[in-house]
Structure formats: C-alpha cells, structure tokens
Amino acid sequence: MAVGWFYLSSLALSFLGLVCLLFTIYWMSRWHGGFAWDGTILTFNCHPVLMVAGMVVFYSAASLVYRLPQSWVGPKRPWKIAHASLQLMAFILTVLGLVAVFKYHNQAQITNLYSLHSWLGITTVFLFACQWFLGFAVFLLPWASVWLRSLLKPVHVFFGTSILSLTIASVISGVNEKLFFSLKSATNPYSSLPGEAIFANSTGMLVVVFGLLVLYILQTSSWRRPEVGVTTERQPLLDEVE
User: Fold this and answer.
1) Cα separations in angstroms, 93 against 35, 48, 144, 177, 213
2) What is the β-pairing status of strands 74-75 and 240-241?
3) Which residues contact 235 (CB under 8 A, 6 or more apart)?
4) How far apart are CA 125 and CA 159, in angstroms?
5) What would the pLDDT profile of 155-170 be if each residue is shown by its tens digit?
6) Which residue ranges in the chain fall short of pLDDT 70?
C-alpha cells in the first residue's frame, strides 16, 4: 500500500512539476514577448524559466531519488550517481538563469542584487553549490570514512530540505517582484488583478503546492530507504552493499 501511494504521489508530482514549468514558459511568452539571448528584456525572460526548471523541478527530482523503491535494494552507488547527476543538471540550469538576469541588468545598466528576492535567491544558489560540492566530495568519492559520512549525513539532509524551502520562497518573491514591475501603470495596476496577475499568482501557488508535496514525500518515513540494521513495520531489513 505504501509503495502504491508513493507511485501515485510521484505521478501527481511529475504532472505538477511539468505544469509549473509550462505555465512559467507561457507567462513569459504570452505577456512578455518570448525569449532571446541578446541582453534585452527577452534574455531576462529566460531567468524564471531556467530557475523553475533547475531549482524546482530538477532539484526536487534529485531529492527524491532515494525514495524510489528500486533504490532500496542493492548497491547505492548507481543511485548516488543519479542523485548527483540530477543535481548537477539543476545547478547548470540555475547558473544559466543567473547569467540571464545579470546579462540583462548589465546591458540595461540596472543595479544587481539590490532586492530581497535577489538576496534570497543568491543565498539559495550559494548554499546549493556548497551542498553539491560537499555531497560529491564526501558521499560520492570513495575517500571519506563511514564515520565522516555518518557525521555529515544529517547536515546534508537538513540543508537539502532547507534549500528546497528557500527555493520556493525565492520563486514566490520573484513572481511578486516581476508583477509589481510589470503592472504598475495607472490603467492596469496589479491591484486590479488583470489576467497576467491571476495567471502568475496561480503559477506561484502551484509551485508552493509542488514544494509541499516534495517535502511531504521526503518526510514520510515509510518511503525512505531502510538503514542497515534497522527494521520497521513497513521496511524489511535489507542488506546494503556500497
């Protein structure tokens, strides 16, 4: 039953993640002219799409690798590689998203990193970079001792969920900031809830629901890989082979 609920939740999560990404693409295309990589505002439009793809969708997929029942049996190394690879893809997309916004700001002579959204976002990306390099060095490379991995694992898990929470906060603040900048005319203010505001607000709420569902799956104990020497009512003892 637990496995069935997991697959049902994963299916709903996959659909919701795709919807969040497609809605972001549609928002930038429908109301802001589409995409380019020439330093204009169309370059900025790549920023929200790349950040949602990287920090929301791919990062969440990487976080859930160890919840797959197939990962509970046999060696962990292939799953570690899958986890690190998905996170690396998330990081690459995120860096491209940052390049897009800095490229536009520099060409338009707009100050960088002045808003709360930018502070929150750059902090999230910095923590993500530290998390990935620490995970790669300690948990993927063979040099680290079992003692060191056991010591750092709770820290790694804590920052993993914290980064996801910060990501959702960054997305929400980014959506809000973009709407305040875009809908500030007297004839079409944000407060009048025009079509763009309703659509973008709805997209932000979908990202929140997506993040909450990811956190729920991560916190559900019956969907975690059993630890060596630990058995529970729903988790049989499995031999772990490194």
Assistant:
1) 15, 11, 29, 21, 22
2) parallel
3) 72, 222, 224, 226
4) 12
5) 999 999 999 999 999 9
6) 1-2, 227-242
